[in-house]
Amino acid sequence: MERIYSLQGLRGVAVLGVVLFHMTAVEHKYSGGDILLPPLLDFFQLGVDLFFIVSGFVMVIVSRGRFQSVAESKRFLFNRVSRIYPTYWLYYGLTLAVLLVQPGMVNSTHGSSNLLMSFLLLPNDKVLLVMVAWSLLFELWFYLVFTGLMCFRERWLPALLVGWAAMLVIFNSVQDWQDYSPALQIMLHPYGLEFIVGVALALLFYSRLSARIPTSLVGAALVAALLPGIGLIGYYRLFDGVGMLRMLAVSAVFGTLILGLAVLERRRHLRMPAFLVAVGDMSYTVYLSHLLVLGVIGRVWQMLGARPDSLLDNVLFSALMMTAVLCYGWVGYRCFEKPVLDRSSAFSRRRFRLDGISGQA
């Protein structure tokens, strides 16, 4: 599979943004009353949107040339599911252990969880036990739909995407997805547009047209996305809503960043910082674990370090929170997530190669 380092770097940016967004609530709860982190960090909840667009892009990378093959469709779905569940179950188990020992420490302000539905990552009307895992419900839905799309000819993919996008736009123009059952809320949510945009951008990236785009135009588009684009999203606080306006605006801005950086990288005009690529590699572990780590650091700080008469303790608290999240993320990725992924990938290559051979025979 082709490795585009700018995509990993953007994953790193996305997860760092989500961590910063949640750090503001932890600081407010445990810092002793004074606040350092600014409210504008609310913008970084859009890190999840960036994840969705990047995810769509990656789906094209891992599926190119593999359409209309039963073995490849099975392999695709297995790889996606094995990417999600084992690491998720680790943090589900840790969160469940905390819940059993100290129930008030887990989602105390969000109500109870359906433990079985949370374990299986199935839509339900209660908060998931691992609260941030709500985004995984969308990822799993996207993977299931894309597996279905792989049953058709690869050249039909643009038309199929247009049909899917049109359905979402028409539905959300006349109906409210929140009026439906939990499963339909996932299927009909305009978040699907972000995934579709990611897929469309990858198709453009691999098309002949992308080579004809002048580098100067790519640079100008990136500047426009970074300055007025992100500025307008923040000014109008589009992250406060969950409708089509947010999805379309964020898709346009973040999509420009993704495609522009990928094109510049391919033309050797860009090298993504190694730190962001490393954080991108461990972004899934960081995403799933950071609330647990922040909660532990917050309680320790409340006992030992909070000084309401000085902001210096807030600086130290914030630095400690981010350092702890990243240090644990590296350990969790290297000791659990990566070994599990390596083994599942090896199994996938053996198992579905045999399916492919028997199918051809």
UniProtKB/TrEMBL annotation:
What are the record keywords, sorted?
Acyltransferase, Hydrolase, Membrane, Transferase, Transmembrane, Transmembrane helix
Domain of life, source organism:
Bacteria
Q: Where is the Acyltransferase domain?
A: 4-332
Q: Transmembrane ranges?
A: 9-26, 46-67, 88-106, 126-144, 156-174, 186-205, 217-238, 244-264, 284-304, 316-336
InterPro entries, A to Z: Acyl_transf_3_dom, Acyltransferase_3
An example Gene Ontology molecular-function term: acyltransferase activity, transferring groups other than amino-acyl groups
Could you provide one GO biological process annotation from this protein's UniProt record? Answer: polysaccharide biosynthetic process
Q: Does the keyword Iron-sulfur apply?
A: no
Question: Which Gene Ontology cellular component annotation is one that this UniProt entry carries?
Answer: membrane
Q: What Pfam family is a match, any one? A: Acyl_transf_3
Listed name of the protein: Peptidoglycan/LPS O-acetylase OafA/YrhL, contains acyltransferase and SGNH-hydrolase domains
